[in-house]
Amino acid sequence: xETVRVNTSQHVDxxxxxxxxxxxxxxxxxxTAIFIVVYLLALFTFGISGFAAQFNGTFIIVLIxxxxxxxxxxxxxxxxxxxxxxxxxxxxxxxxxxxDGAQPSIGQYFIRWIFRIVDFVLTFKLLGFICIAVSDDKQxxxxxxxxxxxxKTAPATKIEHIAFHPTADDYIPMFQNVxxxxxxxxxxxxxxxxxxxxxxxxxxxxxxxxxxxxFLGVTIPExxxxxxxLNTVSADYVQITSxxx
Length: 245
Prior knowledge:
By secondary structure, the chain is mainly alpha-helical. It has helices at about 20-50, 50-55, 55-80, 85-90, 105-115, 115-120, 125-135, 140-145, 185-200, 200-215, 225-245; strands spanning about 5, 15, 95-100, 150.
């Protein structure tokens, strides 16, 4: 499975599975199909209702311009307001992220959108498709310039892989220092564990466990491996923070 390595703000490298050319084309086709369906429905509605005959040519032209504007700006607006996803991307469970792991800025979304002219319009989509197919991080020119890529958001993760298991009322935390951690720290543990089950890269777990044990000032017990340690830290955090609520 091809991945892109992202260094998070906590300086932990996470390998995200990148969306392939097929998935990106599929998302584009879904979005295009939506606009075609809307167009045909509008055409059918105006036709059977006789609305078209009631309006002059200027009104129809204005409607066409509005429709064309929605089509042109759709990807930009959708990605800005829906966390890097158009409707097609959401259905196929892929999204745009910044190459540094953060959510892209409006400027980054704009740059990758404007470069659609180069990637798709001027080259009949060939340049964009070729770049996605051959680049290491599956980036088209707009992604390379904007510092973004497209990743998969739906790992094949089972419930036993999730770090945040609910704890029983009588659960006794092992590491009291977890109170020093923040929600974001524990979410990162969850993300690392989730990514491990996608990429099967044990270095993620080893590095994360080392950073967490160093931050908490504890030694991983001999009876635990690194994965068990991270799950225990997460469970301890859930238990201790729930007491404070």
